[in-house]
# Entry
Amino acid sequence: MRQLTPDALNPGSFKTVVRSLDEVFAVFQGMAEATGGLVQTSANVAAAFQRATEASENYYLLYYSPQNKAADGRFRRIKVKVKRPGCRVMHRLGYFANW
# Structure
């Protein structure tokens, strides 16, 4: 547990903590985008849970089999397109061809 110190009460220290939290959030945001997920912050937990529930009710699971079967360890990007207007596609950016 973190102890309360005089520095913790310094407004400049608070800005550092807030900046650190923003950096942590940016890491989670990047991970979510790379894996096709979402990261949500909300003071209204019920609303965030409702959005997550709605998102999980409307999805498809697709199987992908690459034409290039070489297990060369390279990163291969994946691009998913849909023709239906208004649809939002969330997917991971790609994969490493290790197998």
About this structure: The chain has one domain: 6-96. The chain has a mean pLDDT of 78. The two ends are 43 Å apart (CA to CA). Residues 11-35 form the longest helix (25 residues).
